Batch of 3 targets.
Target 1
Amino acid sequence: MNSITTDLLVIGGGSTGAGIVRDAALRGFKTVLAERGDLATGTTGRYHGLLHSGGRYVVKDPVSAKECMEENIILRRIAADCIEDTGGLFVETEHDDPGYAAEFVAGCLKAGITVEEWTVAQALKREPRLDPKLRRAFWVPDAAIDSWKTVWANARDAERHGAKILTYHKTIKLIREGDAVKGAVLLNTRTGEEVTVLADFTINASGAWAGQIAALAGLKVTVLAGKGIMIAMNHRLTQMVVNRLKRPADGDILVPIRTVCVIGTTDVRVADPDEWPIEEWEIQHMLDEGEKLVPGFRAARALRVWGGVRPLYQPPTLGAVSDTRDVSRTYTLLDHPQTDGVSGFLTMTGGKFTTYRQMAEVALNAVCRHLNTERACTTATQPMPDSGEQKYYWLGARLAQREKDLHGDQLICECEMITRARMLAAFQQRGTDLDDIRRTVRLGMGPCQGGFCIYRAIGLQHQSRLSNAPAANAALVHFLQERWKGVQPLLWGDQLRQARLDDWIFQGILDVEHLPKES
Amino acid sequence: MIEVEDVRLTLDHCVKCNICTTACPVAAVTPLFPGPKYVGPQAERFRGELAGDTVLSPDKSVDYCSGCGICTQVCPQGVKIAEMNTQARAAYIGGKLPLRNQLIARPDLLGTVGTPFAPLANFALSFGPMRWMIEQVLGIHRAAPLPPFAGRTFQGWSRTHRAVPQAKRSVVYFHGCSTNYNEPSLGELTVRVLEHNGCRVLIPPGQTCCGLPLQSNGDFAGARAAAQKLIELFRPYAEQGYDIVATSTSCGLMLKREYREILEQDTPDFRKVSAHMWDICEYLAHLHAHGELKTDFTPLALTVPYHAPCQQKAHGIGKPALDLLALIPGLKVIEMTADCCGIAGTYGLKKEKYQIAMDVGARLFADVKASRPDVAACDSETCRWQITHGTGVKAVHPVQLLAQAYGLV
Amino acid sequence: MTYDSIVIGAGYAGLMAAYALMRGGHKVLLLAKGYGRTHLASGGVDVLGYWNGERVGRPMEAVARLSAAEAGHPYARLPAESLRSAATLFLGAMAEAGYPFAGSVNENLLLPTAVGAARPVALAPQTMLAGDLRPGGAVVILGFNNFKDFYPDLIAANLQTAVTHLKARSVSLVAPGFENDADLAPLKLARAFEQTWFRKQLAEQLKPKLKGGERVGFPALLGVDAAAEVLADLQARLGSAVFEIPTLPPSIPGIRIAHAFEKLLRQGGARVQIGHPVVEVKVTGKRVESVAVKSAARLLHYRAGTFVLATGGLAAHGLEADSHGAVREALFALPLANVPAAGQRRFEPAYFGAHPFNKIGVHTDSDLRPLDAAGRPVLENLRVCGALLAGAEPWKEKSGEGISFASAYQAAQSIVKRAA
């Protein structure tokens, strides 16, 4: 059995955990991060991609609103290359209560959120696909952020400062000796090996699973799982984030993320953060809500649907919660030494992606207090390694890059313009699991949903001697199944035509069903 | 009214099959153009970022699209690829055309200036050293087929032409810049053919450019203004129910559809004019289908390869020229199957694109020559000039053959 | 403009229907919004490759069993002879066009795919024949480093496993003359094969790497319109049998078929207008009077005695499924069979599962006239053929071209016989 001794153990590789491990490493702590899957495969990798201005929360959840605005400014400073400065609009449609606008503006001013009213003409000029019957429009500094890239930037910076990132390591046991948590036992899900991590302090940053992890220490932490679905539309129907000017509800945000735009979301309490369905009514609801923002939304091509679960901490004092939307979106630090008498363990849960850095700061400050050491937080000012130039991401980047040399390299994935060199680098960085690769480079996430690029990726992997034929065959079939999950609920119109073409390619031409099964 | 789908929205129909790329004549001959799927529905997802009011277009390879439109026609899904490329080019250029393009995109301006000085201008256009200098200074290829000025205008002729008093119907003639300044005799023959078939031909004075070359070169504001002016000129005629016929098939397409589809101007005036716009062969074949076309043709023992220009195919009317020419006894018409002559309006005039255009047209040139032709027939003037340039064979509009067979020449 | 017959759709069914009608003496007009599945398919002719969980060796026999077992399948509703006759007509047409095919509807070949599976096919172009895996022997798969749609190592490794009496290995080269282009388009490479200099340089590089008795497998790029000549010349230069393996679209072998049909149609006086969709139809009672094409400024109406609808299924625009789950046949609103009821599953969670939605289509009588739920013809002078027909999953069972050709042929026969 392997054993690691460290200062801090962080459980959970989403934005909270990644933010904590970076902050910790920058503060000079020896840190280990344990994540049961790939980084950002929990809530963080599945969320809307919105860098909140906070405008959404100004009326209903002003604490959260203020946090968002503060962190919005900070993240632009430290992670500019993960952010596309799209700006955002709050638009009042004919379906919305005209009285809300005044509350909204007042709330923004109170929370320190820059807000500027545009004329409807201005808004429609900028966003010609919006409903021409709009009544009012307000600009706020919403932006689109690549959560995946941000998490990895945090993790890589942490590694540079000595941290150890252990993906595919599931926490199966918390080591509790009397009233102290001394670390954890991890299971390497790829090799089956167990790893013991002994740490002075363990931080539970496992988001929607925080209750499950806390239970391993014998502690009761109630985190509700609020499932929400999102639909990626094939191309950007708007270039800015667009919100409905109303009290937050389902399907009222449309976010342009790279080449797609994403409509979301719903909020359905589910019992198990790992098992929940995507329901037909949710999909139809998203399309209907999208139609209110952009007439013709339903006729536009829907690419893929997925869901994620929000971590909604329910304090013991609060009664039963009927609507998970009523639970605050602010974060909560559970100081277990103080509240439960169990030392060496903290839970940081709730919160939003936008506030991950602040959550990390608060968590580490608490750790420092408990360990009686004064180490200042520098994450608010120190940029990520690749963000030093403070240049925002821009949509045309991959296209402009390719224009420099149309023939020097192959495009393996044409939809998302991923070159062969990039693929080979990703294989080097991340290994051969195509799911990991897909998250890294966005392979198969364009309109053809892998119809053309998966064959090439598998072939390239095999050709580069990174997998043998049976592994390549299995990876191909596995990818088809994984992709099917997200596509199957949306099979109509153009996407059905695409899926049918892909069937013709994989079954009709390649006949993958009849690949040799065993070597 | 025909419903037109928003061009950018049609990118959703793309299933990445690359049928368009296999049909693209430009991608087949040059590495500088990555193909219609690439610059069309694929790259379009990466465009759209705004800098203030301008849409950013990061890719200059879209400028190598010739706009022939074959991609749109072969696409099984209905993606408006060529149209998307034309819009993307305009976004890329951002209204800032180089001087050369500003000049060649204004044939009516060139015609106005060149006509009174035709002998001198024509000399310059055919004089090697002069063409070399023009190439150095402006970037118009020294060998590009620039047509000579006629030294007189079709408008001038039309002012002295007395319309026939008795007629079954009246029809408006949209002559276009090339007929006006370069080939007025084509206009005269067209009028005669129409009159022969019982039409009183109205020729509205003051017809200026339809704006197509401005559109193709990325100046959408200029194209809109030009087209709008012409549409206003034709509108009263359309309102009175007159059909409008065009001998320049590309110009006809501009006022049939491109003004709305590419320039996104959907005005009531446009709809009226568009609904009455006809390509001349389409119109004559329409008369024939109603038994109203005179078929008193004398035999013409000629071998004629016929090339349907890309823009003619874009009309979606089949190839009415073939139906008409089939009526002329003795005429041996050979339908050319090569897609594109390469000129694509002003594209093949440009120094950096001339050879691409010649390579695109190579197969057509070979097929024309192999047919042992007496004369070639083609509905677009720029294509005719390119065909002659590439083969040495004289090229005429199909209407000219009709006129000849009617004995009107 | 009046024609004897108008065919809508330029896929396998549309092209075959137009051709068969033309041969039957009809003045034919073919209208299509774009090219059809020829450009996206493998380029061979499937009759039946898999059925009842088994690989089919003798397709006509399997078709007979299938017809007895699945009354809703297109094969079950066509006379057996139509498949045979359609195949014969197709073979004759391709031979006439200079692109000869071989094979028979009685026995399936076993051809390699671009991942190295072994796939049954009934008829294949000469250019693919030497790839038949049944005799075993030795093959070497050649790939080009700068052509990304073909991976010879994977193909060889899988073939080696899939076919016990076969020796398979792979070789990679940079396509000669294209050393500076890392990302070669299929058409460009296919046109290069038509050039003597290319074949010469390729042979010079490849021949020394060949072992005696090996058949050489290329990606399916052996020329666009001169494939027979390219094949003969390559074989002569290499001193080995050569074959091509279909890969991702665009399908060069499929394009050859489309070009061949277009050429035959044009030569036979048929009109082919590809590029503008039929958007409206005029029906009076049970007769189709005309169809209208969306041309640049107006609808253009075309009249004919009979009409053939070959617009494809859900992969094309013949059937339209919307976001509410409704499905309709796009032009005539023909009654559809196999539409899952509201609330019923449309697709299974497993990708390779049996998806109820896949078999939606139009049911016809044996003359290919569309039927309503009660089994009565909806329109007298309309024939429906190809992927628009209900009851098959051709990409799974490998039956696409067979269904298209047989139904198109039968449709044409029923039209020509009635007129006679």
Target 2
Amino acid sequence: MKGMSLIVKTMTNIVIGFIFIYGVYIILHGHLTPGGGFAGGVIIAGAFVLRLLAFGGTTKSEKKSSTAGSVFESIGALLFILIAILGVVFVGAFFANFLPKGIPFHLVSAGIIPICNIAIAIKVGAGLFSIFLALAAMKYVIED
Amino acid sequence: MIIFGSCIVLFLIGLYAIVTKRNLIKIAIGFALIEYAVNLLFALIGFRSGALAPIITKLDTTHAFVDPIPQALVLTAIVIALGTTALMLTVILRIYNHYKTFDIAEIKKLKG
Amino acid sequence: MSFIPLFFVLPLLSAFLIPILGKIFKPLVWIVSTVVSFILFIIALYGLSATRVIPMIVYKMGNWPPPLGIVMAFDSYSALMVLVISILVFAGCLFSLRYMSHYTGQWKFYSLLMLMTAGMMGICITGDLFNMFVFLEIAAISSYALVAFGVGPEELEASFKYMVMGEIGGLTFLLSIALIYAKTSTLNLADISNSLQAIQGTTFFWMILGMLLFAFSIKAALVPFHSWLPDAHPAAPAPISSLLSGVFIKVLGIYTASRLIFNVFGLSRDTAPLFFNILIGLGFLSIIFAGLTALNQKDYKRLLGFSSVSQIGYIMLGFGIGNFNGVAGALFFILAHGVAKGLLFLTSGAVVNATGTRELTKIPGLGESMPTTAWSFRIGALSLIGLPPLVGFFAKFLIVLGAVEAGYLWIAIAAVVLSGLTLAYLLKIENNVFMKQGKTNAKQAPYTMRLAMVLLVVLALALGIGFLPIVEWVISPAAHALLRGLEYSQLVFSSMTFSF
């Protein structure tokens, strides 16, 4: 798909880092403030979509992005199930909170919840980017 | 009570859009309206008058809080609706590629 | 650790491993799916034997006790449904090795199939209302994508129609969950049944029950909400059609409806006779209307789709009769119809694979060239019509016995006479496909496809001949689990945990 004008490209270069960091902030503070994995994942997907829209992409690069998106989506889901199974290994109940809970209102506290937020954010970000690619960017690409 | 009634009215407007409109995109918008209405109803059920938002910021919790369970359920329902809407729009795009029209009266390849 | 979470963890794990494995080594995806479904079958047998010792096994997720956390409540009815699901998924996976070999992107198919299995298993074992909704939507969205798998115009239109109707049902379910939560402030099934005792019989109670029945009738394809099924089942690939007709509409529609009606809302024949008469009426409407429409169909799989709608009517009839034999007959019918209809759709897949068309008038006579397929079809059809000693006869017999015991002699006679409709439309397929004279050069179905069909034939025969132990060990405890009604909640709260 075609890119956009020079003004948009320059502004994207400046702004995209801030969007990404804002998304990471929302993910990591998921157990303290509203947001969490899903909202942060959407923001990170928005950063990737902005880069694709502003700079355009060739068919080959879009295909590579689609493959990478599918792999990252599986990694995020597998990480989430791995955390749940580790709850069985350490405590004996599925999905139990097995890490130390720590001091309330600190960044590193509340057991497995921050790690679950990260896994969900990877999956949601990759999934939304793949949806964007399938709907808007790739037309009639047949794989395998 | 008026608020719950207006949620039901929004639900009925979405249902009207799904049942009577002929354009495929308008049917998808009808689904979005129904999902908004149901999620809004769900989140409003947890409201308690004179209570704060359910975020604990200090260790002494003497204030009343709004019910947090419907908010978690609405989050899950929004994600499910996202998946459904994405799939529906993809199918609509593929139908457009085949038939070159969004009109539901032209797509009657299946009969009976 | 207990075996209960394995039912949905194993399919989920394999569903997310398959995209990665599919890029490394292609045949691995089929191996993973088949092995996982076989393991699920073994665990389902173990679960069945466990529920004969302990009537209700409760598993607390994350060690949170019942009203606070999500629980999995596994009793004999869940064990029966999980067994049916695993048998049909295993047969479907065996069949799809050769059938899907001319589609591209096979890893997507197996990944979606495993997701659908995880959703169906999750519905059957959960004890929490919103958890049931989430698993229902997982299974439903996977099935919408699977129906549209071969992206031709016919499949896309069928999938869109299915999606619209299915989502209306799902959203009505969500709306009724919101109203139930507003009244009872809890989502645990056992806790809801305790709280609903206070408002038993009020207008609100019947309104919620009506909305739930509407939502599940769309998912179970009861007349008049059945119009998505005859479009969706022919358009899907054959192993998916056999899964859809064989278990999917039963798990999403019949299991959820019966679990909520009997165990959560606590209705029974004695306390709410009008409601059960409405169920009998819905059942007869489905049997007659869909049976008559099936007679004029010219498409193989579309005829079988209308037949599925008709047979779901029998299950509703069994539940509507409401006494022990009626409910046990309905549950046995779930097992019998799953095996028989799954087998019939697999034979249709073999025919399509060999001749490339589904229209009855255009298929050449295949009785001599494909003997395994022809005999599988004949045994599946005879089981559906209800010929002893196949399993379908005993299922219908139990329903008729229940009707006679309850005093409804005319229902019993009508149920037997309407089997003639089933005979008529299945005979139409037999005449047009297998008994026609004429030489063709169609080859026999490939080995794994024949293996899957023979597996289901053997099951139909074995379950029929050995019906007494099956009824005593599998069906009877499940019927007791349903008819226990409100004791479900007492069992959930007082049950012990169970470790491997």
Target 3
Amino acid sequence: MSPALTELVSTAHSPATDPHLHVWGWEIPVYLFLGGFTAGIMILSGWALWKGRRNLRPHTTFALASSGLFVLALAAISLGMLALFLDLGHKLYVWRLYLTMEPWSPMSWGSWILLLVYPVLAAGVLLDPPKALLRRVPALEPVVGWMEGRPVVRHAVGFASIATGVALGIYTGILLSALGARPLWSSALLGPLFLVSGLSTAAAFAHWASPEPDERVQLAWLDNLFLTIELGLIVLLLVGLLTSTEAHAEAARLLLGGPFTAVFWVGVVFLGILLPLVIQTLAVTHHIVHTPIAPILVMAGGLALRFVIVSAGQASHWPRLL
Amino acid sequence: MARLGMVIDTRRCVGCMDCVVACKTENQTPEGMNRDWITSATSGRFPELRQTIQSERCNHCDRPPCVTCCPTGASHVHDWGGIVLVTKEECIGCKACLASCPYDARYVHPEGYADKCTFCVHRVEKGQDPACVSVCPTRCMHFGDLDDPHSAVSLLLAARAHHAVLPEAGTRPRIFYLE
Amino acid sequence: MSAVSRRRFLKITGAGAGLAATSALGPLPRLRSLGQPAEKGLRAVPTFCDLCFWKCNAIATVRDGVLWKIEGNPEDPLSRGRLCPRGTGGVGAHFDADRLRAPLLRAAVRGEERWTEVTWDEALGHVAEKLQRIKAEHGPEAVALFSHGLGGNFLKHTLRAYGVVNVAAPSFAQCRGPRDVGFELTFGEGIGSPERTDIRNARCLVLIGSHLGENMHNTQVQEFAEAVGGGATVIVADPRFSVAASKAKHYLPVKPGSDLALLLAWMNVLVREGLYDREYVAAHGFGFEAFAAEVQPFTPEWAYPETGIEPGLIRETAREMARHRPATLVHPGRHTSWYGDDAQRSRAIALLNALLGSWGRKGGFYQPASMDVPGYPYPPYPTSARGKADNPGRLYPFASEAITTGLRAATITGQPYPIKGWFVYATNLIEALPNEAETIEAVRKLDLLVVVDVVPSEIAGWADVVLPESTYLERYDDLNVELFREPFVGLRQPVVASPHDQKPNWWIARELALKLGLAAYYPWKTIEEYLDFRLQKAGMSLADLRRKGVVRGAPPAVYFEDGVRPDFPTPSRKIEFYSVPLRDAGFDPVPKYKRPAAGPPGSFRLLFGRAPVHTFSRTQTNPVLHQAMPENELWVNADVAARAEIRSGDRVRLRNQDGVVSNTVRVKATQAIRPDCVYMVHGFGHTAKGLRRALGKGASDSRLVTRYETDPLMGGTGMNVNFVTLEREA
């Protein structure tokens, strides 16, 4: 057996991978956040539609299943896609994504899922459209009318919204976990983690923005549930990495003593999950009033989670023995 | 079905970087970006030391994760030889392939597409060796069909102990280093 | 070859930004003469390389009119079709954005690097006028030529015709001189370049500090790999665990400066245990008994405290060498100017080889041959009564070539007579000669300093006149009639046009000669005429060489066992185990060891060496080679670094024993070097402003070489005698 490796040096590869991979900057974490948020909105509103919910106050912005929330989701996912587009190196060729379906490429799935998101969100808007929209585009009137008379349409849109939302929320995690060369991402829990985190940011926002007191309390309980599950998934993720190969354990150590420790435990876990969890629990048990502080922390924490996972993941790699 | 690969004799390699320079001039690679590089691994305590020098590049793996993850099919396996290539007109520059490669073999060309070693397919087509293999002054590099039991590369692998880089990553690399 | 039109650039004065360069550090645009159609397709042109002094024959390929790549000529006995990384990166020399572009006249104080661009006519006229003035006032001996490489041949011719007697190359006193003298004193002949070492057939190869593989003389490395691949035993003695050491069966981490003690101990063992080649020594040796008596006290036990190598290992390696003789080659090295006792150390290497019987034998040293290509018939050069100035009174009695540092000293002191003009071709004297301060002092005494170079090197920065030469890819040159295992003639011819107003050395030399009224020495009008004339006399033709690049002669017998007559041009006509000439001159007839002076406590001895992608200080702006190695690193022992809380990648400055401080340099903390020394690759830390790509990158070892030990036998300058401390850069 050869003695322990003491020095391993390499001449230059390229700026993208020296000293370690860093090809994805702010654009990808921002997209992941906005995508997760949109997915959460789609699932929560979709569930409301599925349950047959109608708005008590028509056209109320930002209540669950309201057209306002669906429009916000449209804006969010569009911003997210803009960020994705900005990240591309060969922008003029982006249309190549839509000439093929690569069954083994989660990024290919994603490009088609994102396409599908738009008509689903549009259908959601049309279920309860703002008057201003109908005035501008009178051609929509018959469509809206057709939809309104059929409860099965509400159910279908709700179902589609949930399904597309789940796909949107989970595929990005699979995309990263499929990149086996970066051990930090190498966990099947990454998809569910991103999904639950997206749900928690959406629930946090809806809790904050909803005009209906009952709904707000409901959303606070839901958000606490999502935050708790998210915390559990983070712990399981780390346990899974630490008990896997040395490469995975070393990757986990980036967050447990390594350079990403502070921002992860303070930014993502404490400020992004634990503190809002406490605040919101106190609020729903009527010890304090509902404040926007917790939702803001949850959303910031969701963004921070994406930043840490993307950056630390690029810093993780298989250790060389030879 | 031909599977082209390389066998490199670390006993003879001196790490002179001729392979790196030849690749650069042959393929006119962009400034600061290299399709191949030299790694040097030293172990022990002075003066009981051992050093292994290796010329490395894309391993044109049998199971290339860079091909699997590509959303447009730009990253693909060539018709013959198992050479992994990128069709730059189909590449959107998403960089998933860079992230998927355990060897950090790819780079982003200044024009925006992903790029890497091509095994000098333009030379191999004409019956020549890749530029790095042709230039090596210590003649430590060999290129050929790993599926042909009588090729130089197959005979060397049969005769001498060898290893690949990061075999545990599971990509089945096709470049082997003789010990 | 297309003529580049003479452009009159703007006169640039003041604002010392340097040259009239505007382009970014990228490849130069392809320049086409007006009226020439655009070239399409591939064109292959054979030539020989100029990135170092090996002169491998190469084939350059042009694609659609643009220089594409350079590969080895398969017919070349030196490269056997494969160039080294510098040769492969030779295209970068053509595309180097920092190249000199036009003749320059100094516009301010010497050394400030401020220039006026002028025409060739003006520049050469100025040079000729100054040369004539120096001749009138001081005589032509007052002009010295420092020249390195075959490209200096025509300039040598012009200046000899003018009356120059002082012609020197730094390769003697600063590099291989000690080795050649040590071997001359023993075998009657030097080693030469390419070295007459039969590495590929050696069964045991001993390297004393020689770092083949990092030192990239092509044939040597190719043969080294062949020997290693063939299972030859390698023994390396080096304070640093080099690449060559990593291929060795035995690595001896000798204390720097103690190599001679190790060599003496090896010889002691071979003699004592009767392991030397008795027949060979009896047949060819002179003074063996006296020699045996002299090495008697130098036992491995005696050598142990000096070298740090255990007696058991010394004995084991000596026996290993004997086991494989006569195919045991103790490599003579190349750059051997280390401690000031270098000629005697090299003589010890020669003696060790003699004991093993390797000189003239397969696997040892072969007898090289060359083709018979007569020179051009010129009128005789003027003679001089004064003689040379580099070695007055034969102070260094065994110097077989001119001593560069001797000429420098003569320039400073004016003894034996004043030197008022320096002509410098292709050697960066500021980096090549030890103690930069003396070189600058000498330059300040000159009436004229002319530098012919390809890039604006440090020495060009001090010149009065800078003449830009075309790179080897853009010019014809003198024939390479090589002395090698297989004789051949190589041709250099233009592949592409010079991008600016650069000219080939033959043109510069000829134009200067005409301005000096020496037309009689240039009966040929074009270089083609000159080349064809010489080749025809040898039964070849220029047309033939232009097509093939290299023509080989019949390989002769090279070993004694194949019929080469053992002939040793020494006074005794035998191998001199005991040297009477040395004794008579007051030196040790058999080498003796003296421990080199230690450095101040807490300091490290500064050692330097080569990288395979660079040549001295001349390639750092080559865009291709720069990418391969943009800066050098300082090798520091890992334990030393840990104690000093320095890590790899940290930047430090070096301060030497005279208080000279270096540029910042990256640290490489490594197990692969002794704790008492540090090491870096030579040629970095450039200060010349025109070398923009290389400016300030890495540190300069030569700047820290302020002390040197002069070899009393031949005037070589031992430069491994400087000590440094490290200063952390915040």
